[in-house]
Write a structure and sequence with these properties.
The complex is a heterodimer of chains A (357) and B (200). Chain A is mainly α. Helices cover 62% and strands 0% of the residues of chain A.
Chain lengths: 357, 200
């Protein structure tokens, strides 16, 4: 990776680009890389043992996986929450998302979509391609393999589901997946997520009017008030609502503007447990920074909600806090409340229209 | 913050326009003096603040930089509601972006504050050889619709400070008129207080 591809006119540098362990170009200020850079021998051994356990659980090419999950779902859940070993991440993501099955059931479909179909979103996709993870070596080179595969996956999806097409934000999800799997695998994982192979479908995040974004923001707003009442009140006073800071959390599942090492840990859990984890992580961030946030006035508050301190973004601190927050019951109640409310609004609009001749 | 006798005005500013026209780049040039060839796409919206000093007032801009794609349209009202100023950006190398810009202007005229200062910006003036929207076209449209108009380049910094300076001046004037005309109150149902808050 150290032997980077230097772009013709993008990175104006002649010295080798320094990248972190995930392939992101390092900035002058050192990111929290110290966490992983120097592992002690015992840590290294523990990691090895962990990988062996995971390999056993998966079996050859995923052959034992389903059986294991059926027999010991709690063990799987616990292990995933601790983080999937990076070398197995791509494979496990495909197994837990249901995308592997989709791939096997649809041979040749991806190729068809990429090569033979045209999409109304092509120009939009092209305009965003060099603006998706621009600081990652894989996506940096103009028309390089990273950008080409990103384009292919997004174009294929925009053809596969013309109602969704391409929406800004999907690029970060596809980009994240492409760092762990092939184009075709990434495409089917995108399909599995948006169409709801295992969990509830995500496509509502991207459909016209962004209906699912609106619903999630409504739910999140109420969860904050419910679980962090003091902060909720402060937000109300400062006229802060979640659409000012949390919409991209949902739209990209934290793959946008969050440290990559945290994003992938969230994705491990997201793919196995569903969107609940996005709410939990969001609440955990607020909870962790609660005492600072309640003191801040509007601008500083917005800034704080978009730039969390480094210690709050440490997955080994943030995720255990997130797991301790319970949201399932409230989410269900709030969803029903939201549906009732939107039904009323629609009814009102229909009535208004009827009254006007 | 400002010298004695000077006014501090806080103004909400929203940046609208098609995707890839350079909204974020213009804001970053203004706020941080930086430019990146491939600025990450904005998802949802981004927020910046910057203070600009005029001879007799200091304007503090709360800048909402929005996502450009049509699909995000439904989120836009909450960013321009209560805004004191708006910048509508198009890309001189892309005719569709000019058309899209006009649509934003119309929407602001219909749904924005009557006193909102609106600037139309023809960005990427450094890409002269690829130009498809003539300067006069933009200028004429701006004139007809009573908008400030600038051709600018976030890349070379051409006209960027001028743009924000002129907006600040117009906002200061509007805030004076507003103050003498009516009393501003906190309106908790929207972001009204972000329109102007003054302290002298």
């Amino acid at each position: 990776m150290e032997n980077k591809r230097v772009d013709d006119h993008e990175i104006q540098t002649t010295v080798p680009v320094r990248v972190d362990r995930f392939g992101f170009v390092k900035h002058e200020q050192n990111p929290p890389e110290a966490l992983m850079s120097s592992k002690s021998a015992s840590e290294y051994e523990r990691e090895e043992r962990r990988i062996r356990k995971w390999r056993k659980m998966i079996g050859v090419g995923g052959s034992d996986w389903k059986h294991y999950v059926r027999r010991k779902p709690h063990v799987v859940k616990r292990r995933i929450r601790k983080g999937i070993p990076d070398c197995l991440r791509g494979l496990v993501w495909q197994l837990i998302s249901g995308s592997r099955d989709l791939l096997l059931m649809n041979p040749g479909v991806y190729e068809q979509l990429v090569i033979y179909e045209t999409s109304a979103s092509e120009l939009d996709i092209i305009r965003d391609i060099s603006r998706t993870f621009p600081s990652h070596v894989f996506f940096q080179q103009r028309h390089g393999p990273g950008q080409r595969s990103l384009y292919n996956v997004l174009k294929a999806y925009s053809v596969f589901d013309r109602d969704v097409g391409y929406v800004q934000g999907m690029g970060f999800i596809a980009g994240l997946l492409l760092l762990y799997m092939s184009e075709e695998d990434a495409f089917w994982l995108l399909v599995a997520l948006l169409k709801g192979a295992v969990h509830s479908p995500m496509e509502g995040l991207y459909l016209a009017g962004l209906p699912l974004v609106q619903q999630y923001l409504f739910q999140f707003d109420h969860l904050v008030k419910e679980q962090l009442p003091k902060l909720g009140e402060h937000f109300a006073q400062e006229m802060i609502n979640p659409s000012m800071y949390a919409s991209q959390w949902f739209i990209t599942v934290f793959s946008y503007s969050f440290p990559f090492h945290l994003a992938i840990r969230i994705w491990d859990v997201f793919l196995y447990e569903g969107v609940k984890i996005v709410f939990k992580v969001g609440l955990a961030l607020l909870k962790y920074c609660h005492d600072d946030l309640v003191k801040l006035p509007f601008e500083k508050l917005i800034h704080g909600l978009r730039n969390f301190p480094e210690d709050a973004l440490n997955p080994d601190v943030l995720l255990p806090l997130a797991y301790s927050i319970k949201v399932s019951k409230s989410l269900e109640d709030l969803k029903q409340e939201y549906e009732k409310q939107t039904a009323k609004t629609v009814e009102g609009l229909v009535k208004q229209e009827k009254q006007q001749p | 913050m400002a010298r004695t006798g000077n006014k501090n005005i806080q103004a909400k500013l929203v940046v609208l326009g098609d995707m890839g026209t350079g909204k974020t780049s213009l804001v970053l040039r203004f706020v941080k003096g930086q430019f990146h060839d491939y600025e990450e796409s904005t998802i949802g919206a981004a927020f910046f603040t910057q203070v600009l000093s005029l001879p007799d007032a200091a304007i503090k801009f709360d800048v909402w930089d929005t996502a450009g794609q049509e699909r995000y349209h439904s989120l836009a009202p909450m960013y321009y509601r209560g805004a004191a100023a708006a910048i509508v950006v198009y890309d001189i190398t892309n005719m569709d972006s000019f058309e899209r810009g006009k649509k934003w202007v119309q929407q602001l005229q219909r749904h924005g504050n009557a006193s909102m200062v609106v600037a139309l910006v023809a960005n990427k003036s450094d890409l002269e050889s690829n130009r498809v929207v003539e300067n006069e076209e933009g200028e004429r449209y701006a004139k007809e619709n009573h908008l400030l108009f600038f051709e600018a380049s976030a890349k070379t910094a051409h006209n960027v400070n001028e743009l924000f300076y002129e907006i600040a001046k117009a906002v200061a004037v509007a805030s004076l008129n507003q103050q003498s005309g009516m009393k501003l109150q906190r309106r908790p149902d929207d972001l009204g207080r972000r329109l102007f808050c003054c302290s002298s």
